[in-house]
Each structure stands twice: as structure tokens, then as C-alpha cells.
Write a structure and sequence with these properties.
The structure is a single chain. The chain is an alpha/beta fold. The chain is about 45% helix and about 20% strand. The strands form two sheets. It has an eight-stranded mixed β-sheet. β11, α5 and β12 form a beta-alpha-beta unit. α8 crosses α9. The protein is globular. Bound molecules: nicotinamide-adenine-dinucleotide.
Length: about 300
């Protein structure tokens, strides 16, 4: 099976590196230094002291990818429009197009160019960091869960084949309709911890162990639960909080990606997280003051990267 990874940063390289064991993979990315290092020495995948180099095809030229059976998107939401435009070179009528990116909205961008019966969406519990050109570090155990489902609720033979190839490569992956509930649980984590750690400059453990920030976190989770329930996704406020606390305890020292984005003065993924949930809430007339104020604070931080007082 031919598979293209569109956006081969921390997560794309992780998926491409693992898949290279059971498929013909091509990594596509606009980062010249990263791609050239992979072509020169292979992709370095490390976890603590463990290190391995993976030989995998990589390019910055979308015309060089060739037609693929599956295209897996792993850019940040902010680069989806341009990545999709580039990726059209390798996507044909039979290609399964899969987004495993965080938040809501990547699927809607795909729908602008790709027929719905080719689109699949989901999430993964894997985490990874970019250490430098050609080098990624896995920050979760191997074989944590990855899940996806069809945009039109009809799972094709080609998608089943992708599932098989991914399982053969070692992924604990499942095509499941359950994916919406998992996505909304992950949204609860990302919309509360990512924004609050970025605004308050705290690690996850500090955030949940400080009474005042914990109270804001709870308000965000409550609002997301209200929207989820209105959509028929059954996650109560109590279950949501329990889930977020379980995740937090496992990653006390973690600095979420939005905190890193703010630290490095990059555009954040706020539009596919808090802002996307606010848009959903409007459809049901649900008020979301905590989501709104945190989204506005992130926007204000982004707008003033160059003029911060201290
Ligand atoms: P990243 O910034 O490390 O990687 C994104 C890559 O996309 C970069 O290498 C960038 O050069 C590339 N890119 C930008 N524009 C492109 C274009 N037009 N064509 C091709 N490539 C392009 O980001 P990441 O941490 O890998 O995250 C990717 C997605 O996965 C995000 O939605 C993120 O929220 C989600 N996610 C990340 C993690 C994690 O632990 N890093 C875990 C789960 C989900």
C-alpha cells in the first residue's frame, strides 16, 4: 500500500516512521532541513535512551509523491488549506484521506476539495516532539490507541485495508463510530489545559493543583459537556472532569503544544479548539463564557507577540 504523510513534523514523522515497516511511505513536508536530513541519514526516532534510524522516502515537492492509496494529514490546523492544495497532487478517486489532527475543523477543510466518501477522521493518543531536523522523540508508550471513522458513515474496503496495514505496522488502531465521543473527550483536555497552560505559563500539574486555575478548568469542561450533550455525545460534566484529571495525572510535567506555540511566538490552534466549540455552542443557544474569555486571551497574546511589555 502506498501512503503519503502530509505534514511530517512530530506526529507525521512518527506515523510515517512506524508505517514504513509495512507500507511504501512518502513523507511530504515544507521543512527543507528536516526532509533533507531524513533523505541523508534516515529518520531518527528516539524514546529516552532507545534510538532507531528508519529509512523512508521524503520530499518537499508534492509532484514527487506519486499517486497514493492513503494520505494521512498531520500539519497543524493553521496550515491545512495550503497542505491540502499541495496534497491534491497525490490524491486520486480511490485514495483514503485521513485526518488524525487535534480539534474540530480539519475535516471541513478536506471537504472543500475531497468527496465525503473518501474522508476519514479520528484521533490518536500518541504524542511526539520534534527534537531537530530529522529527529523526533516519542513521548508515549508504543501501541496507545488510534481511532477513526468515515465522514459519510460508510467504511470502504480501502479504509479497511488501511486499518489492516496500520495494525500490521504495530498500531493499536480501530475503525469505530465511537470516535466522536473520544474526540470530544480529547477536546475537553485540549481546550482547558492547552489554553490555560499557555495563558498562565504553567505545566499541567501546576494548573490542576492550583485552586483558582482548577476552577476555570472546571468551567471550561462544564461548557464543553453542555455542548457535547446537546449534540447527543454523552459525556456528563462529572465524567469529563474525571477524564481530564486522569489524563493530567499521567502528564504532570507536560507543557501542552499551545504553551509551546506561545513560547515560540507561533500561531496557535485556538480556532480548531475553543473557538470551534464556541461556534458549535451557538447552534444550540448555549453560553460559553469561559471558552470565550480564554480564546480571546490567546488571540490577544498572539496579536502582541512583537510588543509584549515583559
Ligand atoms: P508539527 O508542527 O511538529 O508538524 C507539522 C508539520 O507540518 C511541520 O513539520 C510543518 O513544516 C508541516 N507543514 C506546514 N505546512 C505544510 C504544508 N503546506 N505541506 C506539508 N507540510 C506542511 O506539529 P505536530 O505536533 O506534529 O502536530 C500535528 C497535528 O497533530 C496538530 O493538529 C496537533 O494538534 C496534533 N497532535 C499533536 C500531538 C503531539 O504530541 N505533537 C499529539 C496528538 C495530536
Amino acid at each position: 500500500m502506498k501512503i503519503a504523510i502530509i505534514g511530517a513534523g512530530a506526529m507525521g514523522s512518527l506515523f510515517g516512521g512506524i508505517l514504513a515497516g509495512s507500507a511504501d511511505v512518502c513523507l511530504y513536508d515544507v521543512n527543507e532541513a528536516h526532509i533533507s536530513e531524513i533523505n541523508k541519514n534516515g529518520l531518527l526516532m528516539s524514546r529516552g535512551e532507545e534510538k532507531r534510524y528508519v529509512k523512508v522516502r521524503a520530499t518537499t515537492n508534492p509532484e514527487e509523491i506519486g499517486t497514493v492509496d492513503a494520505a494521512i494529514f498531520f500539519t497543524k490546523y493553521t496550515f491545512m488549506d495550503s497542505a491540502l492544495k499541495d496534497a491534491l497532487a497525490c490524491i486520486k478517486e480511490h485514495t483514503v484521506v485521513l485526518t488524525l489532527q487535534n480539534g474540530l475543523g480539519c475535516m471541513d477543510i478536506l471537504k472543500k476539495e475531497i468527496p465525503e466518501n473518501q474522508i476519514y477522521y479520528g484521533l490518536t493518543a500518541y504524542t511526539s516532539d520534534m527534537k531537530g531536523p530529522g529527529h523526533i522523540e516519542l513521548t508515549t508508550k508504543e501501541n496507545v490507541g488510534t481511532y477513526f471513522w468515515a465522514a459519510d458513515d460508510q467504511v470502504s474496503e480501502e479504509a479497511r485495508e488501511l486499518e489492516k496495514v496500520m495494525q500490521k505496522a504495530g498500531f493499536n488502531i480501530q475503525i469505530t463510530k465511537d470516535v466522536n465521543e473520544k474526540i470530544w473527550r480529547k477536546l475537553m483536555v485540549n481546550c482547558s489545559e492547552n489554553t490555560l497552560c499557555a495563558i498562565l505559563r504553567l505545566r499541567v500539574g501546576q494548573l490542576v493543583n492550583t485552586q483558582e486555575s482548577f476552577e476555570i478548568l472546571k468551567r471550561i469542561i462544564n461548557e464543553i459537556s453542555d455542548v457535547a450533550l446537546a449534540k447527543g455525545i454523552m459525556i456528563s460534566r462529572e465524567e469529563g472532569l474525571k477524564y481530564v484529571m486522569e489524563v493530567s495525572q499521567a502528564v504532570e510535567h507536560h507543557l501542552p503544544s499551545m504553551a509551546l506555540d506561545v513560547m515560540k511566538k507561533r500561531k496557535t490552534e485556538i480556532m480548531c479548539l475553543n473557538e470551534a466549540v464556541i461556534e458549535e455552542a451557538k447552534k444550540y443557544g448555549i453560553e460559553t463564557p469561559a471558552l470565550e474569555i480564554t480564546a480571546q486571551m490567546i488571540r490577544a497574546i498572539e496579536k502582541n507577540y512583537e510588543g509584549q511589555a515583559f
